[in-house]
Design a protein that fits this description.
mainly alpha; 76% helix
Length: 154
């Protein structure tokens, strides 16, 4: 096991407790407390910086490839095909996933979304973020976003 394996494991395990708290204990005061500051995404962010600083040539290569629009995807694939590139990309994705999942969780709490909607949104927020965002976008609504339908308006 090398430093990139450890960084992959660390960034994944860092977000786990925060994710479980939002999923299993969404309204608990401790969940609200630990998610009120930046700690929930700092672990993967620090991993990204450390991996990037340890291999600065990869960022220089990516910047060079970005100057050539025809080569950017090939350059990105080459970087991500390496252990340092994959570790950095994974930390980047995990940090983004937990950041968006926290937003989903807060939105579900603020709108008093049904528990199944909140749990599904939060679950997929980390596991498959576009699905979590879609569930949240479809089923979570502010009360004033919904049409006011009553007998007098019909």
């Amino acid at each position: 096991m090398d430093v990139y394996d450890v960084s992959f494991f660390f960034s994944t395990m860092w977000v786990g407790p925060f994710w479980f708290a939002m999923l299993i204990f969404p309204e608990h005061e401790m969940t609200k407390k630990v998610l009120s500051g930046p700690w929930f995404f700092l672990g993967p962010l620090i991993v990204w910086w450390l991996v990037t600083i340890a291999n600065p040539q990869a960022m220089l290569d990516l910047a060079k490839d970005a100057a050539n629009p025809n080569g950017i995807l090939e350059g990105l694939a080459e970087i991500m095909g390496s252990k340092p590139g994959a570790a950095a990309a994974w930390a980047h994705m995990v940090a983004g996933d937990i950041f968006v999942t926290r937003w989903i969780w807060k939105r579900c709490l603020n709108t008093k979304a049904p528990r199944w909607v909140a749990a599904t949104s939060v679950f997929f927020g980390v596991m498959l973020m576009p699905v979590g965002l879609a569930v949240c976008a479809i089923f979570v609504r502010e009360s004033n976003d919904l049409p006011n339908i009553n007998a007098t308006s019909l």
